[in-house]
Amino acid sequence: MYSTDRCVCVHIYIYKMGLEEEIKVSMEAEDGSKKATRVASVKEVAKEALSRVPDRYIHADIDPLVCNSPSLLPQVPVIDLSSLFSGDHHVKETELRKLHVASHQWGFFQVINHGVRGELVDKMKKGVRELFDLPMEEKDKLWQREGEMEGFGQMFEASENQKLNWVDVFYVITLPSHLRNSHIFPNIPMPFKEDLEEYSAEVRGVARKILEGMAEVVGMKKEDVKELFGEGTQAMRINYYPPCPQPEDVIGINAHTDGTALTVLLQVSDVEGLQIKHDGVWVPVPPLPHAFVVNIGDVLQIITNGEYKSVEHRATVNSKMERISIATFYGPGREGHIGPAPSLVGPEKPAQFKTLSVPDYYKGFISKEGPIKSYIDLLRIQNEDITH
User: Fold this and answer.
1) Mind listing the pLDDT tens digit for each residue in 20-29?
2) pLDDT the model gives residue 61
3) How far is C-alpha 210 from the chain's CA centre?
4) What sequence ranges are listed for the domain Fe2OG dioxygenase (predicted)?
5) What is the 3-class SS of the chain, one letter each residue?
6) How many domains does the chain have?
7) Which residues lie closer than 8 Å to 280 by C-beta, 6 or more apart?
8) Cβ proximity of 197 and 124 under 8 Å
């Protein structure tokens, strides 16, 4: 598995954008040595009936501020997608307002009545379990190659001294099809590959509908959405978190924000693990039957000129049960620029973020350094820059 401690998630097509050389440079250690190192599958490690996990997985700095009191636990908003497009004006306006509040105050919400067939969702749940149950000799055929992120492995795990996350992932670019990795996608086992194809198209439709609703309620012109997103791009990361004898000492995925526009997450297991940062504490997001969890990424915060928030989140693990999730990342096409939508910028609200090309945005995201957790902080236009 390959990684770097600079960031947790890119969720995009950077290897298909002419950035291969720049990314390979960022995959090297400070001393110039190659950082790409394959480490053991966490699922295989967990099979050893450990009483204590290896030191490389122990994190001493996990933020313990979790809201566990049922009476005080804030509830992540729930949005009915069908109501966003209701013919009843009152129903539609009420749901649009809920979407706006959820996006502005939370940056996270669950979506019900999303239109993706329950049968297809069930096939995906079955398929991802079978995918991670493949014998290692079959997984090896789908393993990440050096300098790439697609396939089985860990995202950005490469330094021999780096602390590892308690997770195995399968990462793949799904849409548009010409960006797919020729080594990975064609070799995904059937019938899961067919189900993944259909699911990807359906979830892209969900993401686009949500963006359409957001644009309407925030006052963004349709032309801006079309100009900023183009055909769009989509990637998928399937996360497998084995049971762990020391769940309080490890982390499934470190706290991070997503570098894309929208993330649509299917919680495959009825096991809690996803937590979001809200009002200074970590709030669990319990799996809701037949729902997707949607969160705003850095790109959408930039496009909405700060109106909607990209929020830190993380994944914890369970001592007894495995947890699986499917994260689908939707972002702009590789052509064009990322910046505040022109219709959301004016004398009363100047641009809060710089505008840069899509390739430059992702190059900066993958190579960010220093203590700033979110690359978006580096793109903010300071007040003095706005007023002078």
Assistant:
1) 433 333 334 3
2) 81
3) 16
4) 232-332
5) CEECCCCCCCCCCHHHCCCHHHHHHHCECCCCCECCCCCCCHHHHHCCCCCCCCHHHCCCCCCCCECCCCCCCCCCCEEEHHHHCCCCHHHHHHHHHHHHHHHHHHCEEEEECCCCCHHHHHHHHHHHHHHHCCCHHHHHHHECCCCCCCEEECEECCCCCCCCCCCEEEEEEEECHHHCCCCCHHHCCCCHHHHHHHHHHHHHHHHHHHHHHHHHHHCCCHHHHHHHHCCCEEEEEEEEECCCCCCCCCCCEEEECCCCCEEEEEECCCCCCEEEEECCEEEECCCCCCCEEEEECHHHHHHCCCCCCCCCEEECCCCCCCEEEEEEEEECCCCCEECCCHHHCECCECCCECCEEHHHHHHHHHCCCCCCCCHHHHHECCHHHHHC
6) 1
7) 65
8) no
Residue with tokens 């804030």: 74
Contact 132, 125 (CB under 8 A): no
Residue found by looking up tokens 């997608």 in the block: 81
Give the CATH number for residue 34. Answer: 2.60.120.330
User: 320, exposed or middle or buried, with CB in 10 Å at 0-12, 13-18, 19+?
Assistant: exposed
- The residue written with tokens 């799996």 in the block is 287
Amino acid found at 152: F
Range of the domain at 70: 2-387
Cα 305 off chain centre by: 20
- Tell which residue, 235, 22, 42, 34, has the closest CA to residue 146: 34
Q: Is the dihedral of CA 207, 225, 297, 345 positive or negative?
A: negative
Q: Encode pLDDT of 310-322 as tens digits.
A: 999 999 999 999 9
Tokens 């979407």 -> residue: 99
Instruction: For 275-310, write each residue's pLDDT tens digit.
Output: 999 988 899 999 999 999 999 999 999 999 999 999
User: What Cα–Cα distance (Å) separates residue 124 from each residue in 242, 272, 374?
Assistant: 19, 19, 31
Centroid of chain to Cα 49:
31
Token pair, residue 255, equals 């706290």
Residue 59 in tokens: 């994190």
Tokens 């204590």 belong to residue = 52
